[in-house]
Design a protein that fits this description.
PFKA_ATP_prok; binds 6-O-phosphono-beta-D-fructofuranose; alpha/beta; 7-stranded mixed sheet; ATP-dependent 6-phosphofructokinase; nucleotide-binding; about 325 residues; elongated
Length: about 325
């Protein structure tokens, strides 16, 4: 093992830079050459690659985004794209690649592994939608951003006596909505994993109003429903003035939280050490308080379990 490469792919996630820093520094400490592949798998196809030094990763641990840039590469999943990528790997004498991203990125890594390339995947996505790990890098930072939005929205919801629907990201996963809703003290949380009960939401708003409550925050995951549709139904069926805020890409940026930075540093360090010890074809995760490593196939097959108990708790805490 002489040369390892690193790339970030898919949606960026706060904490990716902390992983990059950890991989580069651990590799150089172990006398390895480190190559940066730019713009995800697109850079691997095009050969957009440069050598990293200790100072290439200075001053980035606290920055959101990814200094390597990122992309969702459709070309990589074609036979032609893969052939070009394999040529580039050969040309640059890359012995192993550390890939940072979510399930799409891991599917790309699995294709490389099938063709004999040594890869290690590190879970980086704000969605927290990978079943084999309790946390993905970027998730808790995105939740902090959503919680900060909830606090601000509560002020205006209270002042006007309106209900507010806050739409958060997460694709088909309701974790950002669930965690930010709990931490922000939301009255209702709507997620794709649990059937929507609009009457229950309307009754809750009405009961709250009866006892003098002015605000009502509904956190809705983007995968659950159209937030504007929900607004319309609450207004028409419940007669309650309602407004929508779509949080959008704000959730993808910003300073990574302490938890994200620590986990990112640990993942990067472990990835390089696993490669040095001869292991590959794996992804790293965090389960029950411990860092774990798992075969890429197994990780991609693991079904994400939604924590319904936490959601049920919200009904009691936000009564
Ligand atoms: O996967 C991260 C994510 O931000 C999702 O929450 C969101 O649905 C999607 O990416 C947006 O994708 P894009 O960056 O391609 O617009």
């Amino acid at each position: 093992m002489k040369t390892i490469a690193i790339l970030t792919s898919g949606g960026d996630a706060p904490g990716m830079n902390a992983v990059i820093r950890s991989v580069v520094r651990t590799a150089i400490y172990n006398d390895l050459k480190v190559l940066a592949i730019k713009e995800g798998y697109n850079g691997l196809i095009k050969g957009d690659i440069e050598t990293m030094t200790l100072s290439s990763v200075a001053d980035i641990i606290h920055r959101g985004g990814t200094i390597l840039r990122t992309a969702r590469s459709e070309e990589f999943m074609t036979e032609e794209g893969m052939t070009q990528a394999l040529d580039v790997i050969k040309k640059f004498k890359i012995d192993a690649i550390v890939v940072l991203g979510g399930d799409g990125t891991f599917r790309g890594a699995r294709e490389l592994a099938k063709r004999g390339i040594k890869v290690i995947g590190i879970p980086c996505t704000i969605d927290n939608d990978l079943g084999y790990t309790d946390y993905t890098i970027g998730f808790l930072t995105a939740v902090e951003t959503a919680v900060s939005a909830i606090s601000k929205l509560r002020d205006t919801s209270e002042s006007h006596g309106r209900a507010i629907v806050l739409q958060v990201m997460g694709r088909n996963c309701g974790d950002i909505a669930l965690y930010s809703g709990i931490a922000g003290g939301a009255e209702s949380i709507v997620v794709p994993e649990v059937k929507l009960d609009i009457d229950a939401i309307i009754n809750k708003i009405k009961n709250g109003k009866k006892r003098g409550k002015k605000h009502h925050i509904i956190v809705a995951a983007e995968g659950a429903l159209d937030a504007y549709e929900l607004e319309k139904i609450i207004e028409e069926k419940g007669g309650i003035e309602t407004r929508v805020t779509v949080l959008g890409y704000v959730q993808r940026g910003g300073v990574p939280t302490v938890q994200d930075r620590i986990l990112a540093s640990d993942f990067g360090y472990d990835a390089v050490n696993l490669l040095i010890s001869g292991k590959s074809g794996l992804v790293l995760g965090y389960k029950n308080g411990k860092i774990i490593e798992l075969d890429i196939d197994e990780a991609l097959e693991a079904k994400k379990e939604f924590n319904k108990d936490l959601l049920n708790m919200v009904d009691i805490l936000s009564i």
